[in-house]
């Protein structure tokens, strides 16, 4: 399939990261709640975050189950009840969205611009995001690392989503991410990129601006 949708911005489709773009970063209180759920010492939040991130890429890539991931973080297998609590607290940290970004995407969606989600996320979080109202309404399709079995900035992640857009020329696809390394990888494949730093005006200009 080829795209025939042409916008004044010269973009035929947009591929969006979730966390740091649509999703807000976890608050200190949320991190503390997760650490306490894990029975981690209160004075060592940095140590908990280090353990959390050390094996997160493998979890996001679908290489670890929920149980295997948390066993590596904690250094011991959690029981079924604790595992459910950890997964719930972890998932809750990543599901608060930026209303300003969603407002821009609503306008882009109404204009007919196809929107695609590409997120590094484990399977359970992927299912939760898929079920949200904004994902169902705004996204043409949503892609997650745990289902793709690879994480950004691996070129294979971008290539699978780019193929799904149906746009032959990657220069007419915009990739939006809050991480510079992910943007660099997309640019190496020929995509336009926007390194999202929280400036809504930049997002509006990229998706909605009509040159005068």
Characterise the protein shown here.
The chain is α/β, with parallel strands linked by helices and 212 residues long. Helices cover 50% and strands 10% of the residues. The protein has twelve helices and five strands. The N terminus is likely disordered.
What's this model, at a glance?
The protein has helices at about 30-35, 45-55, 55-60, 65-75, 80-95, 100-110, 125-130, 135-140, 145-150, 155-165, 180-190, 200-205; strands at about 15, 115-120, 140-145, 175, 190-195.
Structural class: alpha/beta
Give a short account of the largest sheet: 5 strands, parallel
Q: Could you give the order of the helices and strands?
A: EHHHHHHEHHEHHEHEH
* Tally of helical runs: 12
Name the shape in a single word.
Answer: elongated
Main β-sheet, spatial strand arrangement: 3-2-1-4-5
Give start-end ranges of low-pLDDT stretches. 1-8
**Total strands:** 5
Give helix % range: 40-55%
Give the CA-CA distance, first to last residue: 32 Å
Rg estimate, integer Å: 18 Å
Could you report the average pLDDT, rounded to the nearest whole number? 93
Strand residue content: 5-15%
């Amino acid at each position: 399939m080829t795209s025939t949708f042409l916008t004044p911005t010269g973009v035929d489709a947009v591929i969006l990261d979730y966390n740091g773009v649509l999703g807000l970063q976890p608050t200190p209180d949320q991190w503390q709640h997760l650490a306490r759920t894990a029975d981690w010492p209160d004075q060592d939040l940095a140590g908990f975050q280090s353990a959390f991130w050390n094996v997160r890429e493998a979890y996001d890539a679908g290489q670890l189950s929920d149980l295997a991931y948390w066993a590596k973080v904690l250094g011991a297998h959690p029981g079924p009840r604790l595992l459910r609590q950890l997964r719930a607290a972890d998932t809750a940290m990543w599901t608060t969205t930026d209303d300003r970004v969603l407002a821009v995407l609503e306008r882009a969606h109404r204009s007919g611009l196809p929107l695609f989600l590409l997120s590094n996320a484990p399977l359970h979080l992927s299912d939760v995001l898929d079920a949200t109202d904004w994902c169902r309404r705004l996204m043409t399709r949503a892609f997650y690392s745990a289902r793709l079995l690879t994480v950004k900035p691996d070129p294979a992640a971008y290539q699978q989503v780019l193929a799904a857009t149906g746009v032959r020329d990657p220069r007419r696809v915009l990739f939006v991410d809050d991480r510079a390394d992910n943007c660099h990888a997309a640019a190496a494949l020929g995509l336009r990129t926007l390194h999202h730093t929280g400036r809504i005006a930049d997002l509006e200009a990229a998706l909605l601006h009509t040159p005068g």
